[in-house]
Structure prediction request, 470 residues.
Amino acid sequence: MMDMVDVYKRNHVNVSGHGERPIIFAPGFGCNQNMWRLIAPAFEDQYKVVLFDYVGTGLSDHQAYDPIRYGDLLGYAEDLLQICEAIDARDAILVGHSVGATIAMLAANRDPQRFAHLIMIGPSPCYVNDPPDYYGGFTKEDLEGLIELLDKNFAGWANYLSGAVMQNPDRPSLSRELEESFCSIDPEIARRFAVATFFADTRQELQKVRVPALIMQCQGDIIAPVEVGEYVHDQLPGSIYQLMQATGHCPHLSHPEETISIIQSYLDSIPTIDSTE
Amino acid sequence: MDERLNTVPCGFVSLTEELKIAEVNTTLLILLGYSEQTKLKGQPINLILSGPSRIFFNIYFTPLATLNNRVDEMFLTLQTTTGENLPVLLNAARHEINGGMRYECIVFPIRRQLEYEQQVNKAENAAVKAKYKLELLQASITHKQQIAAKLEEQIEQYDQDLLQKKLELEAIRVELAQLKRSSQTPGDRGNER
Prediction:
């Protein structure tokens, strides 16, 4: 049924690198594959590097946006599985940042055979506090306020962009704007993605993970606090937990060297089984 | 800090790579209600952001500032010492200063602008609602027009049917009259016999 969908076009899939084994990078909330710009090239010698955009972000096919499918993280996970199918991923390494880590986990739980390792950077299975036993870091009011902020920051963006493209397709600065606005998103899509992301509760999924997992936790990360990283480690069977020197929520951007070296030394330590299969 | 920068009519804050406040000017201190620099120096920027803005800032600031080396017109809400919200626009540029990376930010309060925008938004929402109602009305008119057209068609059909029936009736009458005439004719003959 899905043969009809051009996944490469829909998710703006980019494949590079010289290796056999795929390493697939799932970006965090609302941003596109540019987020991996500082670390992805480091894996091109050894791996087949796979980058993509979620539908409704970046250079994905915005016509393919389906509010029902993408009103739930599972829709994004299904897309990720379809990308894996399209590139015929086997023994793949799945790297996800933030909500990308959750989407990667959902995908890995639905088709564990495809994946050899799951690397979660700043994951959170549930952003909202659930007292007394769970601390996610946020109140419902914070998250509702966030949705308002998304509206304010991206209002007019969609109109502006479509207007600019239609009136002046050859305008040289436009591609630069597109390039620089890799986090800009239609406010309607942002809102749905935000609700799907920040009101998701995937705590039950952690125990179902059958793929070896590495959790990379930053210090002073207010989106995915240390308590949450430790919770993920505690609930996810056999996971390895790495507290980073990096601070903030985007170590792949703020501390690319450390991020690369942690991923590489984790991957170097695992036995290579893929080449024989 | 340059004395003029301290008192320029907009907030200025210089952040370290760890997103901590390295320097902050007097204008911003006053806007936020702090009496001394020392209360903010070395603190994470998160301290002066409202809850939702903290999330937004941490999602978007690093990607934009790292990959583009600047941030333009980020709408945020700062929090004053009394817990009040201060809506601002933030611009930032990434620079190397004294061997370290810094994010130099200016923040511009937009209370009045925001009020205006909210009014515009309200008006826009009202317009959207009114347009929706209008569309509904137009749809219902179109629907009624279609019904009327169908009824008219039916009436026409009835008229035609009626005409047809009249013609048929006329034909039957004529036939009947002929029959009558022909049945009377032999009787007359009989009388003659």
Notes: The interface with chain B takes residues 28-31, 34-35, 37-38, 98, 138-139, 141-146, 148-150, 152-153, 180, 182-183, 220-223, 247-250, 253-254 of chain A (CB under 8 Å). Chain A has a mean pLDDT of 88.
